[in-house]
Amino acid sequence: MEAIAREEMTDEGWGYYSSAADDEVSMRENRTAFQRIFFRPRVLRDMSAVDTSTSLLGSPCAMPLYISACALGKLAHPLGEVGLTMAAGRQHIVHMLPTLASSSLEDMCGARALDATQWFQLYVNRDRAKTAELVQKAEQLGCKALAITVDAPLLGRRERDMRNKFSSEPPKVQKGAEIRRDGGTARAISAWIDPALNWNDLQWLASITRMPLILKGIQCSEDALLAARHPNVRAIVVSNHGGRQLDYARSGVEMLAEVMAALRSEGLQNRIEVYMDGGVRRGTDLLKCLCLGGRAVGIGRPALWGLASYGDAGVERVLEILKEELRMAMVMCGCKSIADIRPEMIDARSLQAHISTVPADRLFEINYRPLPLVSRL
Ligand SMILES: Cc1cc2nc3c(=O)[nH]c(=O)nc-3n(C[C@H](O)[C@H](O)[C@H](O)COP(=O)(O)O)c2cc1C
Fold this sequence. Notes:
Blueprint: H1 2-8, H2 11-18, H3 25-32, E1 38-39, E2 54-56, E3 59-61, E4 65-67, H4 81-90, E5 95-97, H5 105-110, E6 118-122, H6 128-140, E7 146-149, H7 159-162, H8 185-190, H9 201-207, E8 213-218, H10 221-229, E9 233-238, H11 252-265, E10 273-277, H12 283-292, E11 296-299, H13 301-333, E12 346-347, H14 362-367
Parallel strand pairs: 4-11, 5-6, 6-7, 7-8, 8-9, 9-10, 10-11
Antiparallel strand pairs: 1-12, 2-3
Helix pairs in contact: 1-13, 4-13, 10-11, 12-13
Bound molecules: flavin mononucleotide.
């Protein structure tokens, strides 16, 4: 899907979606970290039926995966976020709607399937009255949780994006505002975000809504423990924002291992739900995160690539592939249900090594033929 999306998208859209901070080390590390985890499967367990379903903050879903908030969906496809929500609804998974959506909140919530769950991702405005209005509108329109992005006092330096002039429609939330267009998309859409946001603001945010709070962008055990002990926090997303914020931030999956160990050692692992995102591209990635103790994973770019390639049908195909891969990985590991997934089913001893060296294998290099990239028929 990524290869097809690259052919379909404008340079501006591709630059914004595919870019990450500085030298993009953290974005690549999100992928390579998964390659340092191997499985310890169990066998002879009657794998004739496997169930991938679970629940997130009380909402049932078909698998422990949700579509994370990504700004400006219309850079991928005219349907924008509405296409993502349609596909998520048909596949019975959660969609986290972005503050910086190209579609209006009314349109995104209006496209929600009858039994589907949407969460609302929040960037906090310097003008708190505007934030309160937005949050209450999301709640009235049926969003079931509020995911506050906490890793973005500023949006990161994404050079691939900064080389482009922002020429597209700004997000609906910026209607009527002055926009600087000469420093790329991220700069153009983020000037109003409040860099002063801090732990003391959470109580106020909890007071303006009944939606449970999720903190998106926790990156170490110290902050995870603060979140778990906070009376208003119900879930966290361990994430480096797809590598787009601080380059050399550790991978989502490595941080997940650290965070779960800290929560367990304090007996807090059941006080909050822990999700992760960043670099999830295979069902095995998903299973590794569940083995580490994560309750679900988020995907960003894979859903956008599906949307850019084939609209909502492309997103749905991405979700089907990931679900089938997860089901297959669960069968091979001996897990009939999500509850059967255990920490002992992985060997993650190399996860913190930050080195992925595979010894050269001459036979492989000579004989291996990589699968060719598919392109649009
Ligand atoms: C194009 C793009 C836009 C994004 N916009 C937002 C956003 O507005 N708010 C936010 O909290 N995270 C945003 N993210 C981060 C995602 O929610 C998620 O953390 C990340 O994409 C996960 O990594 P992945 O793309 O490797 O799956 C964005 C990511 C991308 C790729």
